[in-house]
């Protein structure tokens, strides 16, 4: 391992890219602890010490901000507005023909879609910042009294806080783009990885402190098994062979090559888990905004939500599992178009051995996709349930490190980044990161 690291830093170009990436990560982490204007830092720490911050949605968003949201820092919104905007723009390709046309235009069209994503990110950041500041003013964010977090709630200061939080999101987008252009890996993915990994030591420390070393050891062993399983599945793919016919161009014969279409077992990535968890959090959010007055009895629908939509209830787990499977099929359907793939193959003279070009190829690809998506959806559903099962067994929360969105993102980004470093090393030394 140390020899591999030494080979990485032996290349001056790669060394500068890695150091630049680490510098951007340092700036990002520092911003997660700088309080927003008007926020009483001591009051925030006292509220956090009471441990009254709501779970569910708060823990989910706080995980993607690297703990910055509950600190009410300048980077409190983290990367969630960008993630949401990117997902919305990708889904709109199915609804808006203009977006689909831009997707097919290559680099120029992708740049236009990226610009739309930035605009939508800022719009969502403004909405999220308004909600966050409102909840911080009322004390609902951390379960404390009004005025404990924001002592001075004048209109000017509130507007300044909202502007600061939105600017923080814009700053995060810029930092991510700098990593993509001048560093190693995809910038926003690296920042998401860092935000999630930042809470990893704290989660493990809490398990050690509360549950003891036996449970800690079991969690580590199970975690290693889960990581190994995730790496195995993420690297698994179904290779559909493709043969290109020979063509006579002048005196030369071109074509006749063999290749394949790589179809991953988990084509949807972490998106279905985010979809399912976000939708299942909506009833809890509605319940929080419809709390009964002191002395009044809660309505029946709120009692039903609090009973069955608790993360530890089997009904919630079953619905979460089934929704993850459903969203996996939905997302794969809108991102992989068998008709488009078959048409492109026909244009370039490609065919699948034993399958005729055109409609039969489209039907065959649809058949393969539907079959390969089934085990992939079951895999995502099981991984998503790990934090909920850990909550029942050891009292963990949504920040449990070995499961759900956290482990999928960390392993996926880690594998992609290692591949990019390996590719750059092979360009310089003809020898990869791993021999």
From TrEMBL:
The places in or outside the cell where this protein is found are: Cell membrane; Membrane
Q: Can you name this protein?
A: Protein translocase subunit SecY
Question: Which terms are listed as keywords in the entry?
Answer: Cell membrane, Membrane, Protein transport, Translocation, Transmembrane, Transmembrane helix, Transport
Which InterPro entries does the entry mention? SecY, SecY/SEC61-alpha, SecY_CS, SecY_dom_sf
Family membership noted in the UniProt record? Belongs to the SecY/SEC61-alpha family.
Q: Which organism is it from?
A: Nesterenkonia rhizosphaerae
Whichever gene encodes this chain, its name is secY
Task: Note whether Transport occurs among the keywords.
Answer: yes
Subunit structure of this chain's protein? Component of the Sec protein translocase complex. Heterotrimer consisting of SecY, SecE and SecG subunits. The heterotrimers can form oligomers, although 1 heterotrimer is thought to be able to translocate proteins. Interacts with the ribosome. Interacts with SecDF, and other proteins may be involved. Interacts with SecA.
**Entry-linked Gene3D superfamilies:** SecY subunit domain (1.10.3370.10)
Residue ranges of the TM segments: 18-36, 68-95, 116-135, 155-176, 183-201, 213-233, 265-286, 315-336, 376-394, 400-418
Transport among keywords = yes
| Major localisation | membrane
**NCBIfam families from the entry?**
3a0501s007
- What does this chain do? The central subunit of the protein translocation channel SecYEG. Consists of two halves formed by TMs 1-5 and 6-10. These two domains form a lateral gate at the front which open onto the bilayer between TMs 2 and 7, and are clamped together by SecE at the back. The channel is closed by both a pore ring composed of hydrophobic SecY resides and a short helix (helix 2A) on the extracellular side of the membrane which forms a plug. The plug probably moves laterally to allow the channel to open. The ring and the pore may move independently.
Look up and give the membrane topology term. Multi-pass membrane protein
Q: Quote the SUPFAM superfamilies the UniProt record gives.
A: Preprotein translocase SecY subunit (SSF103491)
């Amino acid at each position: 391992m140390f020899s591999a690291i030494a080979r990485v830093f032996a290349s001056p170009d790669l060394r500068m890219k890695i150091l630049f990436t680490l510098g951007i990560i340092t700036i990002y982490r520092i911003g997660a602890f700088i309080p927003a204007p008007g926020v009483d830092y001591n009051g925030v720490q006292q509220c956090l010490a009471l441990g009254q911050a709501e779970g569910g949605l708060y823990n989910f968003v706080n995980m993607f901000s690297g703990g910055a949201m509950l600190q009410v820092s300048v980077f409190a919104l983290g990367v969630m507005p960008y993630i949401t905007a990117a997902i919305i723009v990708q889904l709109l390709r199915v609804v808006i023909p203009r977006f689909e046309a831009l997707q097919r235009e290559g680099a120029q069209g992708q740049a236009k879609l990226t610009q739309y994503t930035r605009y939508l990110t800022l719009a969502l950041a403004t909405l999220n910042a308004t909600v966050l500041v409102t909840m911080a003013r009322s004390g609902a964010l951390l379960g404390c009294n009004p005025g404990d977090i924001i002592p001075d709630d004048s209109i000017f200061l509130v507007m300044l806080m909202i502007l600061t939080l939105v600017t923080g999101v814009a700053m995060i987008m810029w930092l991510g783009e700098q990593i993509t252009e001048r560093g190693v890996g995809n910038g926003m993915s690296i920042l998401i990885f860092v935000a999630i990994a930042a809470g990893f030591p704290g989660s493990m420390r809490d398990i050690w402190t509360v549950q003891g070393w036996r449970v800690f050891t079991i969690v580590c062993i199970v975690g290693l098994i889960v990581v190994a399983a995730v790496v195995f599945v993420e690297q698994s793919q179904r290779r559909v062979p493709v043969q290109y016919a020979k063509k006579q161009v002048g005196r030369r014969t071109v074509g006749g090559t063999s290749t394949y279409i790589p179809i991953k077992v988990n084509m949807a990535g972490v998106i279905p888990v985010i979809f399912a968890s976000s939708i299942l959090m909506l009833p809890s959010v509605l319940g929080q905004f419809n709390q009964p007055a002191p002395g009044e009895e809660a309505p029946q629908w709120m009692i039903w939500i609090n009973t069955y939509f608790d993360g530890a209830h089997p009904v919630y787990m079953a619905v979460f599992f089934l929704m993850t499977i459903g969203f996996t099929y939905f997302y794969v359907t809108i991102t992989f178009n068998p008709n488009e793939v078959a048409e492109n193959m026909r244009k370039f003279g490609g065919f699948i051995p034993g399958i005729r070009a055109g409609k039969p190829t489209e039907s065959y690809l649809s058949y393969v996709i539907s079959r390969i998506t089934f085990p992939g959806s079951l895999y995502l559903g099981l991984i998503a349930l790990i934090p909920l099962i850990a909550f029942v067994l050891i009292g963990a929360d949504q920040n449990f490190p070995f499961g759900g969105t956290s482990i999928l993102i960390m392993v996926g980004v880690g594998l992609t980044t290692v591949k990019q470093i390996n590719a750059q090393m092979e360009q310089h030394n003809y020898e990869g990161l791993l021999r």
